[in-house]
Structure formats: structure tokens, C-alpha cells
Amino acid sequence: MIAIRFSVISINVSFYKLLLLIFVLQFSNIQAQTQMKIPPNLHKGDIVAILATARKNIDNNLKPAIDLLHSWGLEAVIGNTIGLDNNQLAGTDIQRAEDFQHQMDNPNIKAIWCVKGGYGTVKMIDLLDFNKFKQNPKWIVGFSDVTVIQSYLNKMNIASIHGAMPITVEKASPETIESLRKALFGESLNYEIPFDAANRLGNAKGEIVGGNLSILYSLMGSNAQIDCKGKILFIEDIDEYLYHIDRMMMSLKRCGCFENLSGMIVGGMTKMRDNDIPWGKNANQIIENITKGYSFPIVYNFPSGHSHDNRALIFGKQVILKINDKKTVLKFE
Fold first, then answer.
1. What does the alpha-carbon distance between residue 165 and residue 308 come to, in Å, rounded to a whole number?
2. Which of 48, 106, 222, 333 is least crowded, fewest Cβ atoms below 10 Å from its Cβ?
3. Straight-line distance from the first to the last Cα atom of the chain, in angstroms, rounded to the nearest whole number
4. HEC profile for 155-211?
5. Phi, psi angle pair for 10, to nearest 5°
6. Nearest to 144, CA basis, from 170, 127, 167
7. Where are the alpha helices (DSSP H) in 106-146?
8. How far apart are CA 202 and CA 196, in angstroms?
9. Low-confidence spans in the chain with pLDDT less than 70
10. What is the structure's pLDDT at 278?
11. Residue 55 carries which DSSP code?
């Protein structure tokens, strides 16, 4: 009888060990599936494609960007969309998608540098096939309307670079250019900026996501809607009415983006507009008012966005954010 009991106990222990093993394997598999893919660092001799995903670029204005790539030991390839003229856009949606698809699938191209923003990337995003790209990702670089692609990539757990674009190189600050180089070549990327009285002090750690606020707002409800849970959200914008900022921030709040947010970085809120009857708050005050019920730290006026000082951010990477009464430190792990 005792032998039977020991046998039953032994079977039960083995059974629970088996269940634990299955759980561990499944958990490890889930982690493997959701682990962020970081594209390979660039090396001298690599080729970077310059193309348009949205607004047309018909001017002879790419020499500063090409010269910059050459100074880094890189080569440039100009996409078929550069020079195309379809009203505001760089060719039709199909033409822009075909150019982007070709550069994504070409194994000789190691990074894609979007020439400018504007509007139109969302009109071609669903025409793209990312199957090959998922297996062999490469850096997609840009900001503003490129937030469409960056948000889409983030949902696929692929990192991208929010940074200067070819047409902004000539007027970009030295810090902007150097930060982009470091991001592309895989060098240590850390920022330390002066204290801002508007900041909400505190520390945060998490994956950095985000981009242009208007684009993030326009993607809500789609398969590229930003996931804020446990993340550090970066936002910036340009040429928006202040009440639009309020509306977009309210939408982020109502969709639950702030509920489990780890921290927030507010970049440039550039050339904001107001109505004849003033809204009554500037962009930073609007953001502070809408997020005042949450405890996550916020840094304002971070040097990234639509200005000459547009420091590169690697969306999808883990960062440490420390905001105190003397300075703000953002460190990429």
C-alpha cells in the first residue's frame, strides 16, 4: 500500500515537472517571438537608398546628404521616386510602394533614408510586403510622416531610427548629424540636456516608441496603432492649432495610452498656431494638463523634432530616462 502511494506521488511530481517545463518552453517561445529585432549596424562601404514615401522632391537638393554619407564611408543610391511629380506626391501610391519595396528587398541596400515627410506614406503602407524584411531587417530612417512606417515596424518588433532626413542635413545642428551617425553605426547613444522647469521629475525605463503626434493620432484604430504599455512615449509636432494638440492628446488618453505608460518625452512643438479666440494654453501646458492625473515622469523641450536640433532616437530600443532638478539624461541600452 505504501509503495502504491509513493508511486502515485512520484507520478504527480513528474506530471507537475512536465507542466512546468511546458510553461517555461512556451514562455521562452513567446519571448523569442516578441523580442525586438535590431537591424545590423552600418559599416564603411555600405549602400544607403534615398527615396520618397510621401511628398515629392523635385529639387536638386540632395548633395549635402550624399556628401555626408560619403564622409562616413557610405555610398548612396537614389530611388526612382526622387524627381517624380504627382501634384503634392512623389509619384502615385503604387510608384512609391514599388520603390520602397525594391530597396527593402535588395540585399545590397543596408539602410533606407526617407527624403522628406509631408503626407502620403499611409497611402502606400498597405501595398508593401514585409515578409523578406522581417527576416533581414535594415534601418529605416526619417521622422514626421515616416512615423507611419516606424509605427508599423514597431508592431512587427523591428527597430527604426527617428532622425534627420536628407533635405534637413544642410541646416541640421552638428549634434543632430553626429547622433544619426552613432545610431547607424551602433555607437553608444546618450543624451544629457539642461533642466526645464516644466518637467515632471522621476525615473523611467522601457522601450521608446512614438513619433509625430498627428500621425500617431491618425493611426489609432489601425494595425499600426502605437502600443504604450510599459513604454516611454516620444511625441513632437509642427504647424498645428493648439486645440488640435488638445484633441489628439485627449484621444491618446481615452484609448488608454497613458494608463501603463512608463514615461514621456515631449520634443519640439514647433510653430504652433492659435485661433482668434486664444485656446489659453501652449502645447506643453496642454500636455501637462491632460496627463496631470498620472505619475509617469515627463521631459519637455527635448531636442528632437522639426528643428535644426533633431537628435536621433532609436524606436524599439530600451532606454533609461532620468529627470531631476538639474538635468535630464536619456541613455540607450
1. 11
2. 333
3. 59
4. HCCECEEECCCHHHCCCCCHHHHHHHHHHHHCCCCEEEEECCCCCECEEEEEEEEEE
5. -60, -40
6. 167
7. 131-135
8. 13
9. 1-34
10. 98
11. B
pLDDT digits (tens, 9 = 90+) for 268-290: 999 999 999 999 999 999 999 99
Nearest Cα to Cα of residue 143 among 64, 74, 231, 215:
215
Residue that is written with C-alpha cell 509642427 in the block = 238
Instruction: Summarize pLDDT for 35-51 with one digit per residue, the tens.
Output: 999 999 999 999 999 99
In percent, how much of the chain has pLDDT > 90? 90
Cα torsion 210, 131, 25, 32: sign: negative
What whole-number distance in Å separates Cα of residue 169 and Cα of residue 48?
15
- Reported as a single tens digit per residue, the pLDDT across 58-72 is 999 999 999 999 999
> What's the one-letter identity of residue 15?
F
At 88, is the secondary structure helix, strand, or coil? coil
In eight-state DSSP terms, residue 90 is: S
Q: Are 201 and 326 in contact (CB under 8 A)?
A: no
Residue 264 · residue 226 · CB < 8 Å: no
- Which tens digit of pLDDT belongs to each residue from 298-310? 999 999 999 999 9
Q: Which amino acid is at 83?
A: G
- 118 and 54 in contact (C-beta within 8 Å)? yes
Report which residue type is found at 74. Answer: L
Q: Is the pTM of this model over 0.85?
A: yes
Q: Which residues of 188-220 are buried (b: 16+ CB within 10 A; e: fewer)?
A: ebebeeeebeebbebebebbbbbbbbbbbbbbe
Residue 108 DSSP one-character state: T
What pLDDT, on a 0 to 100 scale, did the predictor assign at position 172?
98
- Cell matching residue 51: 527615396
Helix axes 283-290, 242-254, angle to 10 degrees: 20
